Amino acid sequence: MAGARPALIKDAFLHSSFAFRWPSLELYSRQRVLTPPPRPRTVEQHSRRQVSERTDGIARRRCTDPCCGLAFLLCMAAMATSLRAVQNRDLQRLTRGIDHRGRVCGWSAGTEDLGLLHWCTARMQHGWILNLSSPICVARCPDLGEHALCPEDPQATEVEEPQEGGRVLLVRTEKQFLSPQQVTVETKPWVDRYCVPARALGDALASETSLLGAVGPGVPMDWLVGCYEHLRSLPSTPRLLAIAGAWALFVSLLYLLCLRFFALLLLRLALLGSSLLCFVAALVLIAVANPDAVPGLLPLVATSMSLATGGLVELNIAYTLSLGEMPMLAGILISGLILGAVLLLMGCISARTSLEVSADCMRESCAVVMGMPSLLLLPVLDALVCQMMWIVLLAGLPALLSSASVSGITMFGISGVFRQLHLAVVDYVHIAALVLSCFWVQELVAAACLFATAHSVAACYFAPGTNIWQKVRHLPVAPAVQGLLVALTCHLGSVARGAFAVALLRFLRWALWALHLAFARQEEGEKSKRKSRGCGACIAVACDSIMAVLQAWTEFLSSHAYVDIALSSSSYSTAASKASKLLRSHAGVVSTLSLVAAFLRLAGSCGLAAAAAIAARTAVARHLEWQPMLSEARFQLQVSGFPFVASQLSLLYEEVQAVSPELLGILTAIATMLVSRALLFNVECAACTVLYCLLWDGSDGVLDASHLPESFWKFARDRGIASKRSAKGLEPRRRSQP
């Protein structure tokens, strides 16, 4: 220390003399002395400067996009007011028949007391038939032998009247007589609008086989008729239907449990099985196209061809299968299948880390759904609101269309039933506003459910604890309900803004196809018009494809933007921008998770539906085998003092004896498909939320979550992201270094 003091004094002296001799450099020297040398910036500091917000938990709630929320409320108020104004409109011009003079029966002037439409008869070579081109309005359906004023063929006359300047005025006059005609066909009123021949109406109502039998004879038609008969008896089997629904729910929950513990194993087996299936399909196609190439598969191919040809003959389809006539198509299919198998195998090997992260995301999402059962209410709410909006749309459109002027048209040789609507511009605007509003409500409820899922999963992600059950203790009783309340109060504007973008694209697609159908219904004209309609159809398909891609991308981006809103409580535009950047920087793992989730949802739904249908069909078909066990159970219940349960078991067995096993299997498959798709869609949304929370949490270079799967830590280490504990542990060491 003694030697250091003279050195310090010497340095100070030199610096003072340096400043005295060159006063022009005094400011520069002081700046060099006072300003510390720049330190190299680490990756962690760089990332923290880029991300200005905290990523260690969910931000405090604040109201976002209030203008969009106010616009949505005003739109809903306008829709309710317009529906209330048109709910009492008269729909008779849309439902009642139109006579040969263009009058609406029971509504137009002169037909107030003539509310039914009747078709007169015409005498032909083989007898009397209905003249479907000359309907008239009647007060009641005439009986046999009565007379009705029926129109005769119109008679047109033309008169030429010379005018000044050499012009000629052509006056065309059309006359038509109404003559009383005896009724030769007995008719009865149908839906209180039309007089239909009694024989045809009685046959259609009394025997359901008359319409199906006219399609074509054979075993398939008999099976359809039998299914229709059993469908009519389904309302009398409520207990069996309830058990089928419970079985569908149990199978779906069992699949979620398997995904919770064996997601990665199931994913690898599914990918390997798909690749092997592609290889086998390619070999079968090779054998079909060239049987000499694979002699061992020739008997299988011959048997399959025989069965297929026999089935087509049974269906009265005169066609033979032969891929040998299309070698080019067979070669393309074979190449595609082999390429798909190779790509699946390469994907399993190269994207191993992404597959592990995706599998763990599915596992964590299944755990979240099982730990928070309130999330299962969201698909039910979404489906109910969606159906309600369809009902409102179907009820509101006729009321809006009732203000249009109508004119009768002839379709399929029948006049008086079909009509053409002549709408004004205001009517088109009202219809478009109603359709867009209904779509907006549907998408907003779906977006609110997505936000509720994201809010619940994000809260569980940052909650303290080492497993899902410890994390759930720090959450409210019903996180999904709280998420819905937050979405509809604090973030109604943001949710409405994202929902409007999707609803607008849906509306544009529907409007495009409506215009396409309107042009397609035009009569066939010249060749140039047919070519223009063909070009219009191609343009419509291309535009619809573009808008479908835009709609899919908007839905994908909005779903992740809702997660960002749940985390950072930012506006929709800011959240969408941040989500787009974050997804683009991690496109590989995000794409892998999307493909894995869609694959597991599709394969799981189909597999569960098939398994549940086979189990239900087998159980009902073999009801005689478990009859003794059921009898013993009924006896034990009677003895134990539960007569009501015993009687319900007896009624259940009677329903099992009456129902068709095949029909019950089909209904069970449909129920399982619907339930599993709803549950797996919820799991998919939760998995995407878990992955986005991981990416958002590590965007500042540090993972703040307390418990994460091992694949998440490996994914973070590969990208230079440290954990919160390791960052805290390294801080003292860095300070102690000189």
From TrEMBL:
Transmembrane regions: 240-263, 269-288, 300-322, 328-349, 361-381, 387-414, 475-494
Localization per Swiss-Prot or TrEMBL: Cell membrane; Membrane
GO molecular function per UniProt: transmembrane transporter activity
The keyword Transmembrane helix belongs to this UniProt entry's keyword annotation: yes
A GO cellular-component term linked to this record: plasma membrane
Keywords, in A-Z order: Glycoprotein, Membrane, Transmembrane, Transmembrane helix
Pfam family, one: Choline_transpo
InterPro entries, per database record: Choline_transptr-like
Domain of life per record: Eukaryota
Membrane topology: Multi-pass membrane protein
Similarity-based family: Belongs to the CTL (choline transporter-like) family.
Primary role: Choline transporter.
Protein name as catalogued: Choline transporter-like protein
Originating organism: Symbiodinium necroappetens
